[in-house]
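Me: I keep going back and forth on a fold encoding question. No explanation is needed for now; the record alone will do.

Assistant:
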Amino acid sequence: MSDIPLIEVDDLRFRYEDGTQALDGVSFRLYPRECVTLLGPNGSGKTTFALHLNGLLSGEGRISVCGLPVERRNLSEVRRKIGMVFQDSDEQLFMPSVEEDVLFGPLNMGMPAVEAERRAREALEKVGMWAARARAPYHLSAGEKRRVAIAGVLAMEPEILVLDEPTTYLDPPGQGDLCRLLASLPQAKILITHDTDFAHALATRAVFFLKGKIAAEGSVDHLLSRFNWRPRFA
């Protein structure tokens, strides 16, 4: 593993307009090929933290992604480096067909059509959805939608994947398929999840959020034991 982190966060603080202190001095590193899971109760700051990584939220502190400060002038480049897959895939799927959805990102950043089409095909083949390229996203199952959302991110060829509750709405076979897909991808990953089995299967390291702070880091088992934390819906 390289000693040079892909993500560096120092003393990140963020307060919502209602006065809620969502992040209170968070520092974090992500290294190449790592898969780090963010654990902790609802409202502990995990998703708020992730939304800072590509500038969807902006607080106090320092964040860099692949050496680029996360600042307004760098946001377009940062968002090519870090691919976000949201909890609800419908938030990312809005075009008439699967292929058009995956093409949207590369074309929107000005890529020539031939190159965009190549990337879209490769991404859809990688997630096993090329045969569904002409289908409307709203006709897909939850697992298929998740795969297409991931393909849309992969077509941008990011160095980092951030996935927020990726097993939501998936049945056990769908969770297993998604786990195998993510394990096969070379990108460094951040997983926000309450699914401890999923975290066990993929994570090389775990970080526990509590009241806007990182309370501890270590293995998934160590943190679950230390905080006696078993989500009721894990």
